[in-house]
Automatic annotation (TrEMBL):
GO terms for cellular component: mitochondrial membrane. The keyword Transferase does not apply. The keyword Membrane applies. The chain crosses the membrane at residues 6-39, 51-68, 74-92. It comes from the Eukaryota. It is found in: Membrane. Keywords: Membrane, Transmembrane, Transmembrane helix. GO terms for biological process: regulation of heme biosynthetic process. Gene3D superfamilies: Transmembrane protein 14-like. It comes from Plectus sambesii. Belongs to the TMEM14 family. This is Transmembrane protein 14C. InterPro entries: TMEM14, TMEM14_sf.
Length: 96
């Protein structure tokens, strides 16, 4: 069964990559947004909590480091918070 919350998260990650490309011309943002969005979307669509856990964990770690080093909430802080929420949710679902 598809995870609607996980699919919403994946959509936000993809949208963020596209917005980063449109506003700043950042190909890394576009590629990372599409890659992580598709990975997390696949995990959410198939109900594979392990894939969603891994994708959100990596994204939380990377964006958390960017947020701490840059200090700007947008976009790194927002993606970190969302990823940490999905990570915690996935951990709960894996062990509950």
């Amino acid at each position: 069964m598809a995870d609607v919350v996980g699919l919403g998260y994946a959509f936000v990650v993809i949208l963020g990559g596209v917005i980063g490309f449109i506003k700043a011309g950042s190909y890394p943002s576009l590629i990372a947004g599409l890659a992580f969005g598709l990975i997390n979307g696949y995990g959410a669509h198939t109900g594979n909590n392990t894939i969603l856990l891994g994708g959100s964990g990596v994204l939380a770690a990377v964006m958390g480091m960017r947020f701490l080093s840059g200090g700007k909430f947008m976009p790194a802080g927002l993606v970190f918070v969302l990823s940490a929420i999905i990570l915690a949710r996935s951990l709960y679902r894996a062990f509950a």
